[in-house]
Write a structure and sequence with these properties.
Two copies of one chain form a homodimer.
Chain A (H helix, E strand, L loop, with lengths): L1 H17 L8 H4 L5 H6 L2 E5 L7 E3 L19 E3 L2 E3 L9 E4 L2 E4 L5 E3 L4 E3 L2 E3 L10 E5 L2 E2 L4 E3 L3 E2 L2 E2 L4 E3 L1 E4 L2 E2 L4 E3 L1 E4 L2 E2 L3 E6 L3 E6 L2 H7 L11 H8 L1 H8 L14 E2 L4 E2 L4 E2 L4 E2 L4 E7 L4 E2 L4 E7 L4 E2 L4 E3 L1 E3 L4 E2 L4 E3 L6 E3 L4 E2 L4 E3 L4 E3 L3 E3 L2 E2 L2 H6 L1 E3 H4 L6 E3 L2 E5 L1 H18 L12 H4 L4 E5 L13 E5 L1
Parallel strand pairs in A: 3-8, 4-9, 7-10, 8-11, 9-12, 10-13, 11-14, 12-15, 13-16, 14-17, 15-18, 16-19, 17-20, 18-21, 23-26, 24-27, 25-27, 26-28, 27-29, 28-30, 29-31, 29-32, 30-33, 31-34, 32-35, 33-36, 34-37, 35-38, 36-39, 37-40
Antiparallel strand pairs in A: 1-44, 2-45, 5-6, 21-22, 22-43, 39-41, 42-43
Amino acid sequence: MKALQNLFDRIVQRVNINLRELDFDVQPYVQNLLSFEQLTKFYGFYGITPHHPLDFRFRRSNLAGSYFLGKCSTTNSILYKSDIRGDELKKEGDVYNFQNFQITLEADERIRIEDSFLFKTLVHCFSHDPETLEEFFITNTIALHDANIHGAPIDGSFLGPFATVDLTTMNDCIIGAYSYIQAGEVGHRKIEPGTIWVRSPDQFNFFYRHPEEELRRYIHFEAGQLPQGILIDFVEERKEDWQRLYEPVNLETIAVPESSSLDRFALIKPNTKIGDNVLISERAYLENAHMGKGANAQEHCYIINSRLEGNNVTAHGGKIIEADLAPNVFVGFNSFLRGRPSSRLSIGKECVIMPHTIIDSDQPIEIAAGSLVWGFNTSQADLETNSLPLEKLSKVKDGLSLGGMTFEGNGGAFVSGFRDRINHILEANGAFFDGLANSGHAQKNQNISFNTIQPYPDGEREGLYPTIIIRP
Amino acid sequence: MKALQNLFDRIVQRVNINLRELDFDVQPYVQNLLSFEQLTKFYGFYGITPHHPLDFRFRRSNLAGSYFLGKCSTTNSILYKSDIRGDELKKEGDVYNFQNFQITLEADERIRIEDSFLFKTLVHCFSHDPETLEEFFITNTIALHDANIHGAPIDGSFLGPFATVDLTTMNDCIIGAYSYIQAGEVGHRKIEPGTIWVRSPDQFNFFYRHPEEELRRYIHFEAGQLPQGILIDFVEERKEDWQRLYEPVNLETIAVPESSSLDRFALIKPNTKIGDNVLISERAYLENAHMGKGANAQEHCYIINSRLEGNNVTAHGGKIIEADLAPNVFVGFNSFLRGRPSSRLSIGKECVIMPHTIIDSDQPIEIAAGSLVWGFNTSQADLETNSLPLEKLSKVKDGLSLGGMTFEGNGGAFVSGFRDRINHILEANGAFFDGLANSGHAQKNQNISFNTIQPYPDGEREGLYPTIIIRP
């Protein structure tokens, strides 16, 4: 196991070098997180379909539980339970619009992950950095439990648990637990836990920070300790269910319409119903869930005792429990929305729940149709300062403050930007498939070959893989 | 599936070109053998251990059910249920003795299998061809059900079901069903079914042919038909057991001593006992089998209701049913040894059962210790002309005929050659391990990582694989 230990030490050292200006030592944060024993037991896997041209090159990586679906490279990168989704990579000749530039891609976009250490991390690839449209890099980065790197090339950074970097290029940053950053380009910053920051330079700036003490109950991470809190407990309580899934015994079978897809590594518990054009992604967890036409359950989300009427997006890591969602509700990354059996959470049509929103109440909550919702909410009263009609926001010209939220700039641009993106997500996921046209992931992911790969079982290289190259 | 069909057609054409001088068309023999549907459903796999340096390169091959364990290459080669065992490949710097030559290997030996089509075929690699010690090639070859290619580079040939080519280099040959050829170098020959031919140029020549009509009941293969007979039925009757094995549900667990190994893809049915230093290889089938110390059960063998006292070799494809084997009995490739519950077959110590021997009797049979046995036997009486004390044979100087067997040359060289080989097999398989020294496959194969690979599930390339390269 010596080579695996060396690799780990090297990654920690490299990240510390990158973060030296911020005077941050990642060592005490990561030293007890990773069980090398555990790493050697896992198998990794990758999917092959006719729709995603592949070019994988893995070198010495420990790729436990991966799934890539498109061009890829790694070098010495540990990727524990990761999914590096390359199924939306740009192709040679595609034109990318950035401000006034129309940039034609010179080559197929590819992913490169060098000496990084990603721990139960999601990466969804599509570089939005106009300087590196052909390459999605994640070099010398450590990302912890359930962090997301979404369309965001990143280098030399450290992401805490449940942190998300979205449509952002990031260098040498420290992102606190449960922070969501969508900010264009960011370097040499330390972001406090629970920060929700959405910025489009020259257009708008949305800023909110979860109240420190309250957030601690949900997620809390200090040097020398393991992450703790309600979010961690929620995931840990369901750990055993997952083990069943990786023992390749068949689970309860479930009827899936021809226009929908259920990933072989999704977990479906009893009384779940799947409508047309529905996408259930890898490592989504559904229990007594009703998925209406065009709804999707993205990677690492949980939908429990809930009803989604249709065209609902549940983004990566979103958690929906004891809730009823009208059509076209969007639930952003890592949101934690929990009603109770006797006091359900009800969300009206076309609501946008911002990423990293917490709604957790033992009283019934109703959210009016067409609302934007954010922040920390344990009662209907909290929502008064943590939500706003989208209609109202779209008329804001110069900014607005409400509760802990500050908005600067043009509300119309913010709202239409969000609506465009939700529409794009539904389209890409196949929600608008009519039997012939508009196919997306729900249709294309129906029939994936999964190849499993295991590390050296013993010796110097125990826990590492041979170099693996896979080409079309 | 078009690319798979094209590949198949191309292989058939290439073999026909190679066999044009023999005026042989393989097409009617193979056209109905292969279900393309079936091929797309299978997954292949390969083993990784720290003991076998690997360098796999698979290109477009359909590698259903493979397992390689060492350096390898393929190009467009269909390898249905094959195991290309590279765990005895020679290494750079090894010295190979051939006649008066001492040949030093310039590079690690590697395997190359180009446009071949191997169907449920075993290949065990170690080139004995002094002209190509660094490469074990199998180009443009079709090999059918349960054929063996054992230490035998081969090109442009066609092997019928249960045919074996052993320690031989072969070009453009047709080998009939159930024939065993160990003959140095052979080209442009057509070998009739049931031929047992063991030749060492300038030393000896052993020749026997199974009686045609009797052999037909056991294995029979004609153009336009599937192979038929008792051997095929025997395998087919146990087909369902195998399906359980590939559904990765755990079977009955069984105690395996620390010095022994049981392959994850071997099939163990109840009441089997495994002693020390025992090797149970991939796709061995054991039911109510007693495996004494140092016994081995090689790939594709069946041992049922039988007792092997120790240091017994059951070579690839050997079948032992209702039999008792004293210590140090050797059972050669594809032998079919079947007693009955009330009239068992008993084989004395240090017997050598020649490859492709049939003993199938409803009367009890006893074989004296130290016998060489061959040919077709359904009664004790048959053995009078199909066996000989090894002691007696070793004194033969100029040849001998007995029943249908003809022996020319030096009996001592034949007997000592066989004994050396058996000793080498036991040694290589770890039968002589003492807790520290003399480890072999039984000890080294204990902890293999198995990687499974699947073909494209759909589209033009359905049933074929992407190019896969795996390096240390």
